[in-house]
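It is worth pausing here to work through a concrete case rather than discussing structure prediction in the abstract. The textbook approach is simple: state the sequence, then state the predicted structure, then interpret. We follow exactly that order.
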Amino acid sequence: MIDFNFIYELVEDTYSTDNGRPSLDPVMLVKIPLIQCLYGIRSMRQTIKEIEVNMAYRWFLGLTLDDRVPHFTTYGKNYSRRFQEKELISEIFSRILNQALRAGLIDPSEIFVDGTHITFLFVEPRFRYPFLSPLPRDSQAWESLLGSPVAGAHGGLAPQMYDMPVVLKKE
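Step two, the predicted structure:
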């Protein structure tokens, strides 16, 4: 469904065919972090370990049972050398995303955001500002704050978010 072959022409100027040892396949360099992201694996070291034993991952990467999986440090060095330009990796991600949309693999009617790594302004209880208020605790409060219905994985209720003490008030 997704054709990754366009990656070869985008990175051809970063590869040399006539000297040095063979490098890692650029398509593999893109597919490995996709596996990590799609399956929620927390580190590249763990991702490589999973690829070593998971036949589906090996098939997705084009590896046979006899092929060696690259060491995580080898992967990291190659990835940083090949994709130093943020525009290049953005272009690759954009093309993959467009192919997935056209193939119907992504439903654009709903958006889910993982806020795990989003920096949040923490305000100690003794320091309150007028533009901050406590977080809503139920789906009705979230709906009034956001101005639209909230559907969650917990029977239609908004997730309990007691770990985030404040939210910006809607003006």
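Step three, interpretation. The radius of gyration is 22 Å. Confidence is low (pLDDT under 50) at residues 153-171.
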